[in-house]
Amino acid sequence: MVRVPPGRGPVAFVRAQRRAVRAVAPELRSPWLVLPAFAPRRVGRGLVLRVARRVLARSTDPLPGVDATRRTVAGTAGGPPVDVVVHDPPRRERPSCALLWVHGGGIAAALAQRAHDAGRPPAFQLLVYPVLDDRTVLRGAPGPDDVRGRIGWTASTNRFGWTAYLGHPPRIEAPAPYTAPARRERLAGLPPAWIGVGDLDLHHDESTEYAERLRAAGVPCAPHVEPGMLHAADVGSRTPSMVAFRERAVAAVRDAVGRAPAVPAG
Question: What is the per-residue DSSP string for 221-252?
């Protein structure tokens, strides 16, 4: 559970620290799920909850008992960032053989959908090169003239990741609700979004298509396609283009938090 210290007011947004992890076995047994997410260090006013890690052992539900929906992503509050461990089972309870699977933007989109359906819609979605659609795997390897999916996050990586996430290879049939956010048919009423992705990212098409569908459903959405960018190429990069990409995300959050109405915490 995410706990907000008394008197801190409403939560502006939640972020997770990225933690490097290593798979100890290639087989897909009892997967752990490590859910990082991107968020800027400074967005002006607002309480920032830094979720150190979320580990889900022996679970097939990609979002079991997610408590992030208990705190609406809205409003602003003063005070320094707070580190919160959402769930971290004792080492003795962890499987000895596990796949560690990193997932961020897709989980953010799924949480936004679930929170909306629960009547607690967040103020904003920051979706940075999100993994949204398991059907990308079904499209197969890139063609000879397609540079996407050849470097970095490849088609093979995507298949491996989705298989671990779903517990089986992607199928034509839709998985459980919220598992693959792009599978959702009704997008009207979802919170405003900023979606950033590189034009060389394997997830370019699913990201831009989701942005188009959001806008068609009347959801304010500001997509940004970064030229020459691979998946997660901005992580740790100080090149001007990658710094500018991160600053765009920072500005989007700052603007959204500034517009969000204050709501009572709890």
Answer: EEEEEETTPPTTTTTT--SHHHHHHHHHHHHH
pLDDT recorded at residue 187: 98
Q: How far apart are CA 124 and CA 9, in angstroms?
A: 18
**Domain ranges, ordered by start, for the chain:** 13-259
Q: Which fold has domain 13-259?
A: Rossmann fold (3.40.50)
pTM for this prediction: 0.69
Q: Are 165 and 110 in contact (CB under 8 A)?
A: no
Question: Would you tell me how many other CB atoms lie within 10 Å of the CB of residue 68?
Answer: 27
Closest among 123, 251, 253 to 191, alpha carbons compared: 123
pLDDT tens per residue, range 201-252: 999 999 999 999 999 999 999 999 999 999 999 988 999 999 999 999 988 9
Total H helices, total E strands in the chain: 5, 8
The CA–CA distances, whole Å, from 78 to 83, 173, 220, 244, 253 equal 15, 46, 27, 27, 16
Half-sphere exposure for 69 (CA within 13 Å, toward CB): 18
